[in-house]
Amino acid sequence: MLSQKTIDIIKSTVPVLEVHGVEITKRFYQMLFSNHPELLNLFNHANQRQGRQQTALANAVYAAAAHIDRLEEILPAVVQIAHKHRSLGIKAEHYPIVGENLLAAIKDVLGDAATDDILQAWAEAYGVIADAFIGVERDMYASAEQAEGGWKGFRPFTVERKTKESETITSFYLVPQDGKAISGFKPGQYVTLKAEIPGEKYTHMRQYSLSDAPGKPYYRISVKREEACEGRPAGIVSAYLHEKVKEGDALLLSAPAGDFTLDMEDTRPVVFISGGVGLTPMIAMLNALAEQQPERQVTFIHQARNGEVHAMREHVAELVRSRPQLSAFYCYSSPTDRDRELGRFDKEGLIDLPWLKSVVPTMDAGFYFCGPVPFMKHINRVLKEAGAAPSDIHYEFFGPKGSLD
């Protein structure tokens, strides 16, 4: 338990963290990787270059400081981060290293303003927060290992099949190399792929949503090839998977993880809204409902640039044809002449409030969405304007957690 003095000191630093938080976390990562370059094997280098990881950590530190006297309120965020840590292989012995470099970064950025009292208070607070993470993650590691078909660490899987879904997305069907059972998962969860790429100095970790329903003898991931664009380099791992990995090759996976999952206990209508490759967890959820709750009313909405990059369209069409309770609608932001000729889409442009309300039969439903961050910010705003209850709105960030406000 933290003393009231420590709590008061931590809360007094909240305004400072609001201003200098990202600067502190940028310095933290510089120090961490300089002092412990081996940890570069655990981090997504692209997220580091784009600043997403630094911002996510700054937000987490700020939230911890603001709620230091009621840490139970940030438990959902702890669990979400712990899922990612477990899937990456973050261990208890990493936390003292992180704490040492975080305190050093606070001192380095704030200078004399970081008094001994402040640094001591943060050291005590970090110990309490770290213990919370370590405890949650210990249970997650045990559950992943002890589950039927579960395993510890990373397990080799063989690429049984590689299927092109669109001009940019390819699916990989992965079966365990040892031929034994694989653990189940909840629709919406992901696996971490550890890529050891020839010519790359460090291991690259990437988390990919499982894109088919549970209960299969394989895991399926559907990967978008990330091309270079302004401010972002081409995806190293996605290019490797698309160009180099062949059927019969081996890939290393950790057991499924993640807290963005479909509520199978809810019998109300459900609405899935996806943008681009954000359809991957939505397809897993859609397939699970088609198999396990075929009577549940489902509205599937997908936003794509055009038909060339629209993945799994025919699969969804087959489900719609066989299940009258399922309807699907598509918005294309830049449709081709061929798209118009074939009537491939229902709306040109972006999903907006009037159109959404015209295709969604009721707002008393569960809403799940995923896609690029600007898309998710837009959808979150539209759903709130449409009257969806906050407790019915569920979403997943690909990568570090951000804000939709």
From TrEMBL:
Keywords: Detoxification, FAD, Flavoprotein, Heme, Iron, Metal-binding, NAD, NADP, Oxidoreductase, Oxygen transport, Transport. Binds 1 heme b (iron(II)-protoporphyrin IX) group per subunit. The record marks 29 as: Involved in heme-bound ligand stabilization and O-O bond activation. Residues 152-263 form the FAD-binding FR-type domain. Its EC number is 1.14.12.17. NADP(+) binds at residues 276-281. It catalyses: 2 nitric oxide + NADH + 2 O2 = 2 nitrate + NAD(+) + H(+); 2 nitric oxide + NADPH + 2 O2 = 2 nitrate + NADP(+) + H(+). The keyword NAD applies. FAD binds at residues 190, 206-209, 397-400. InterPro entries: Cbr1-like_FAD-bd_dom, FAD-bd_FR_type, FNR_nucleotide-bd, Globin, Globin-like_sf, Globin/Proto, Hmp, OxRdtase_FAD/NAD-bd. Pfam families: FAD_binding_6, Globin, NAD_binding_1. The keyword Metal-binding applies. GO terms for molecular function: nitric oxide dioxygenase NAD(P)H activity. Residues 1-138 form the Globin domain. Residues 149-405 are annotated as: Reductase. The record marks 84, 396 as: Influences the redox potential of the prosthetic heme and FAD groups. Heme b binds at residue 85. The active site is at residues 95, 137. Is involved in NO detoxification in an aerobic process, termed nitric oxide dioxygenase (NOD) reaction that utilizes O(2) and NAD(P)H to convert NO to nitrate, which protects the bacterium from various noxious nitrogen compounds. Therefore, plays a central role in the inducible response to nitrosative stress. NCBIfam families: PRK13289.1. Consists of two distinct domains; an N-terminal heme-containing oxygen-binding domain and a C-terminal reductase domain with binding sites for FAD and NAD(P)H. In the C-terminal section; belongs to the flavoprotein pyridine nucleotide cytochrome reductase family. This is Flavohemoprotein. The gene is hmpA.
